Predict the 3D structure of the following.
Amino acid sequence: MGSTAVHEERWAECMRCAQDGDAVAYHQLLTEIRPVLLQFLRVRTRDVTVAEDILQEVLLAIHRARHTYDPARPFRPWMFAIAQHRFIDAYRRRQRTTAREIDDEFAVDRLADPTDFEPQLDAGLTETMAAALAALPARQREVVTLLKVRGLSVKEVAVAVGISEANVKVTAHRAYKAMRGHLEGWADEDG
Amino acid sequence: MKTDDIVQQLVGELRPVRRLASPLRRFGRWFTVAALCVGVGVAGFGISPRLGHALRELDFWVGTIATLGLALLSGMGAFVLSVPGAERRRWTRYLFLLPLGIWGAVLGYALWHATQGFTQWSLPLWAGWGCCRQMYVLAVIPAVLLFAMIRRAAPLRLGWVGVLALLAAAALAACGLQFLCPLGTPMHVLVWHVAPTVMLGGVGVLVGRLVLRW
């Protein structure tokens, strides 16, 4: 019996047990399908970070839809149908977002240099900064971490992440704006 | 949030679930209740005095069988599409076009014949508005029930499921309308039975995307 067929049987059985509330089987299932789904999404997105984001949505969708799986039917078509549609949904969302982005090099150049952002850190602020960073979407968090924590230049970040330098600046600008909002909330609480 | 954390969270939240019945079984349940509701609605509105005469006409039987077929194929399609991976062949979702096409073709042919004798223009076109209203009233409960049942599943193609669901409800109502309609001329049926059925199905794209998201 090929490895695919072995996996198929095991995953179907794990999902059947999970439907009955078996947490161990469910954990095994999610652990085993995770790299398969990630590979499936990486091929389609060609971006590890985006694939990881969509993977999380797929796992959530599988969890919500688990009652619809028929143990008498193959597991893979059910799983990949959910993955495919979550990928399409995410792709359409990204299309809508990038359609609204301004591809204007001059406008982007007028944004503050992202490497100039130097927050005044103190002990209380550090924890909140970490929370603000953690609250960012994955792409923004990655860009800010590479720029500020690892100290890479805009050009180096662009190469590492696989986007244009203009995109790095816009992403960083949005991240700082979001973090600023988070920090203002902290400042208000602090009085 | 990291994927590891999400996995832990999902495992921690795991509860036993009641497995969804097969699409065929769920469709059967829907059809039984919906047909009953339409039957009660038809009785409430009052059967057409013309029915005795209509039963001897081929158009009546073609319309009844076509609308029933449309309701069956659309409804079944909606239930199949509401389960991820259950659709084995993409062309099955287009099966509803067969009874719809037959219905339209037979009416078109009858209309063409009738216009040869200029017998279609004796009534104003808006005289049939009552039929459309009755059809939409008959379709309400089947439509609401169908969407409620589909929401329990996990539909992925929301637009398609919405179209098929509303088409099924409208077609079942149109089938009931066959027993109510006092006119029954091809032009009237085309404008006030077929067109409203198709329009309601079209609206299903929006309704599906609004109501069925999960």
